[in-house]
Amino acid sequence: MSNSHLRLRPKAKTGLVHDVTPASAGWTYVGFALHKLAAGQVTGGEAGDRELCLVLVSGKARISVDGVDFGEIGERMSPFEGAPWAVYVPKSSEWAVDATTALELAVCAAPGGGDYKAKVIPPGTHPRLTRGKGANIRHVHNIMPEDDNSAHSLLVVEVITPQGNTSSYPPHKHDQDNLPHESQLEETYFHRLNPPQGFAFQRVYTDDRSLDEALAIEDGDVTLVPRGYHPVATTAGYDLYYLNVMAGPKRVWKFHNAPEHEWLLK
């Protein structure tokens, strides 16, 4: 497998598996970390000037923010088994997670601000959406969408793409601060595959091809999308899950489709 600065392989099998910061990614807004814990293990930290969304990708945990115990949350033991549980952590807060089962915990981060309160985001907070048609169908669970007024800058969503289908497609981008036409958002993709030995493909490219990378995606990889279009395709026999974190100068998701592929929407 070729190396790419846009595709990050897990750096460990347990503990802190991914740790993307604005400095390590070479951008300004988005951070992403992933912890794999056994039952009884703990993690936590301080949000500082960032706001966080703790997403239970799989497993159960007891979570507290600034000493307020939200109790044990979580129910699915695989990201392919239903909707997520999550917790919003505002800036300047301390958070702690005590795994009560094997746990895969995503820590999504972006600049904090405003007077937002810590809260649990249970399954069903936002309805599941199905987008696309034919071989472009995918199923969407919004966790922190732009229309819920729940955060200063974080946008968080997870998507299931059935085997053999495309997603984030037709190709779209959101790299220009040009509202109302397009918003500027950095983005990470955290990928899981079912069964896990499968693979998928993602292309990240710009109109002028100054950025143009085709990435082979395996279970547990993270893709960085600093700019450009970023479609995904999974292969026959393997469903694809991905967790997206987006943030930019404004908390608005307004994308621009690649015009040569917009005919696919008709």
TrEMBL record:
Entry's transmembrane regions: none
Single GO term (MF): 5-deoxy-D-glucuronate isomerase activity
Keywords: Isomerase
InterPro entries: Deoxy-glucuronate_isom_IolB, KduI/IolB_isomerase, RmlC-like_jellyroll, RmlC_Cupin_sf
Enzyme class per UniProt: isomerase
Family annotation (SUPFAM superfamilies): RmlC-like cupins (SSF51182)
A Pfam family reported for this protein in Swiss-Prot or TrEMBL: KduI
Protein name: 5-deoxy-glucuronate isomerase
Top-level taxonomic group: Bacteria
EC number, as in UniProt: 5.3.1.30
